[in-house]
């Protein structure tokens, strides 16, 4: 039997970042079912940091982690993990109210936002159709995140601090033994007083193994496609273009363009794959709003964004299962919030309170807690 201070389940961005933080306060093992960390939702994201995105709690976590991404600690990464890349919210005539609402909620989240007319929008993204646009809003301070680089840096930092990563180690049993938990994974038994559940879409499944009640997590499938830009176009400077009602988005992805129909199809936890209808919808919505002609889809994929009822993450100890800690429900913001969410988790586990800088941003334990949710057996 292997004994640790912390067992972290799931080596997506949530588990990797939490393990990195916790290893400073004791010994941690990170257990991942797949052969490669990041195989599920983390490896399938659109890789953006948008201050105005999500609930007020999400906004506070995003702001609390931004500095880490912009200026990581010495030796954390050998290249920049983020690059500036603006967001352009666009609306048709019938979407003026949605655009105004996006502007108002973004300003409430203290994001910098500026209205631009259709001409200004087309200067940023020249393929937008003149007859489609009624107005637009630019959010200039958004960032593109190198997700693979960030995940790798968390894992490397964790190992450098002496942590152990076990892959092909699916957790199949979690039982209390005295003051600690006993966990079976990958043919071994692991032992620790604290188990962190960072199993992404499977967090309720893992919770059930520990005898915890459900947090009502709902995985929602989201699809993405990539395709070639028009020959000779300079897509490198294009913003992330998002429809005001979040019906689709479009952004440069290396030498290609990436689009999503912003689908949210309820799913069981699984290795998600795209549905033909959603792939076609992505292409159709982009072609209606732009002069782009999508003749060939290079690649399509889908990932599960998992939410609880209020769409804020769950970061807290299970009130009925001492030592069983939830780090779940990262929805569509798990990459950009990961540095702050991991520090919040480590603070709550080690000292019972949130780090002071996150409290100063207005982040409250109650807004992240399991207690705020109505739970089911
Ligand atoms: C199309 C799309 C676009 C997105 N765009 C953005 C964006 O622009 N910005 C942003 O911040 N976020 C974005 N997201 C959301 C972001 O990707 C997720 O919030 C984040 O990746 C969730 O990370 P995670 O670690 O919780 O989950 P995962 O990456 O799914 O990791 C969970 C891990 O737990 C493991 N696991 C499960 N059960 C067990 C078990 N029993 N034993 C051992 N291991 C187990 C799984 O194998 C998996 O590796 C997007 C998501 C999608 C799908």
Task: Furnish the topology, listing elements before pairings.
Blueprint: E1 2-3, E2 6-9, H1 13-22, E3 28-31, E4 48-49, H2 56-70, E5 82-84, E6 87-91, H3 96-108, E7 114-116, H4 118-124, E8 135-139, E9 143-145, H5 147-160, E10 164-166, E11 171-177, E12 180-185, E13 188-192, E14 194-197, H6 203-209, E15 218-227, E16 240-243, E17 249-253, E18 256-260, E19 265-266, H7 276-289, E20 297-307, E21 314-317, E22 324-328, H8 338-350, H9 356-360, H10 365-368
Parallel strand pairs: 1-13, 2-3, 2-14, 3-10, 6-16, 14-22
Antiparallel strand pairs: 4-9, 5-9, 6-8, 7-8, 11-12, 12-13, 15-18, 15-19, 15-20, 16-17, 17-18, 21-22
Give the gist of this structure.
The protein has 377 residues and is of the alpha/beta class. The protein is 27% helix and 27% strand.
Please tally the β strands and state the result: 22
Rounded mean pLDDT score: 96
Largest sheet: 9 strands, mixed
Work out the helix count.
Answer: 10
Shape label:
globular
* Low-confidence runs: none
| Fourth-tier CATH superfamily name of the largest domain | FAD/NAD(P)-binding domain
Number of domains: 2
CATH architecture tag of the largest domain? 3-Layer(bba) Sandwich
Instruction: Quote the beta fraction.
Output: 25-35%
Can you give the helix content as a percent range? 25-40%
